[in-house]
Amino acid sequence: MLAKITKPKRGRKPNAKKNQGEDIITTQDIDSEYENKNKVQSNTNALKFVQSNGLDQAVLESYYKIQTEDLEAGFLPTHIDDLSLHNAVENNLHDLFSTDFYDVMKRPKLQLSDSRAYDNSFKLDNDLEFQFNDSKSTILEPCHALNYPFDELNLRNGFVFNTGGLPLTMAWCPLKYGNLRYLFISIVDKNATISEFSDNKSLLTVLEVSSETGHLQINKQIILDYLAKEIEFSFVSASTSTLLKLTLSSGSVEVWKIDFEFFANPEIINTKPAIYTLESGNLTFTIPNNQLLITTSAFTSTKTFVFGTNHGYIGQFSIDSQKLDYLIFAGIPAITHIKTAFPTQPRDDFLTSFVEAADFSNYLIRLPIPNKKSCLINVLKTYDIPTNNKELQFDKNSVHLNNLNSFLNIEWPITIKKISLDNPNNVTKFKIANDDDINCLANQIYYEDGKVSDGFILLTGHTNGSIRLSNYLNLLTNTEKRVQVSTLKLLQLNKSVTTDTKYWLDLCSQIDKIGEMAAVKSNSKQSSIGRTKELRNVNPKELCPLKLSMLENTVASIWGNGLLIIEHLTL
Known about the structure:
By secondary structure, this protein is mostly beta strands. The chain has a domain at 102-124 and 163-282. Helices cover 10% and strands 40% of the residues.
């Protein structure tokens, strides 16, 4: 349950009688004023966050004004445990949360490959000229990383990694080995055919990231016969194993068992990353009808997943038995993305999926609980989006928030919608108009005792190369307040106007009220399912963030120019 936040009484303006030109605002001033007088909620985390991401007078003054004078809750409130999810997992509610069968599953058998198979399949050789802020530029070669520069006045901890090609999607693995985390990324050639049913190969790259030292290295690279369009880990994991689900451009889904032995590699003489091909051990799920191809999928329990197809059918597979549980025509066109809420209350007798379709509309669809197949599919509500407002392929930008029992998705170009599961007619909209169009969004997640839970940070990636952080608790509870809530620009990626392959990363933080700047609209290119397309009709497209992910206090982003940017937010 969410903690109730009481709006405090408005206090007097700090230092109102002093000469404002001589004021130097210190962190102690903010801490004392905010903690001792306003009493909204403990925001020491928010204070430390801003200190660690731009500790200079301008940022402090901006933060002081917005957070203190305007009485807004902070960017990073204390993480609140999701008690409903905890109880559902503890009691294995509806028999949806058990991980017992993980032990009997086989992990994928990987065959160590030589460089010839890699060279014959990929051309990931995209060198980039790169620089931080106004520092000297350097050549960033494929599979190499640059650490953020050290600055005593603006402590930032992160790195930029060149994939050498085009990263399509990514996901953090729930398993943690000491301070090591593992990020799975799907990468293709820059000139690869990007379509729903492409026959191009993809490279599943596993990065090993240390949250303590900031060190990064490639754990392994696995050659896949098709594009991995979606990467999803089970929302509940065992202590030493989890499930990885890959939605492929072959129209099928693969499920892998991932444990700590998966990350082990043989001793290799050279320093190149270990390259593998998949030999066996993976479970492949395909509809027994060659006219129906899976386009998207989502876990509905620890041993089932729901999927959408190119002809508007929705179905479910059981992972343990590899059985097709049901296949129902939903009465809608091709399904491009599906996201599912899992029931965490004993009274729940169905689960709800958020569906994006090829008619550029969104749907909430009621589905049977995985172990209760008797109830019929029931479309609850349709939300129309004009046909020129959205692209089809890989536009997978809906977020499920279990702690708010809602879905968020982008309504092009700058609007985000919140759809309540309790009342589908209750749709809240807010705009983030500080930068260009929103291209992707994500929410902060935590892995605690093997289960995924939501934080309170909303990330938005914009087509002008910026990434913003907002507290969606503020966004959804400040609609009647006099002052608009604020958003923090975490970074800005820029491209040289004279050199096509030169980029620089602006690490200067910037705090704005939401909606301060006018949105810059662009004409979006419409395309149909299965057709080759550009990533997005932005100029330049290389500055477009393609996907965001935030695990605890680590923000990861992949870009159209082939870069992966990871930042550890010091708290």
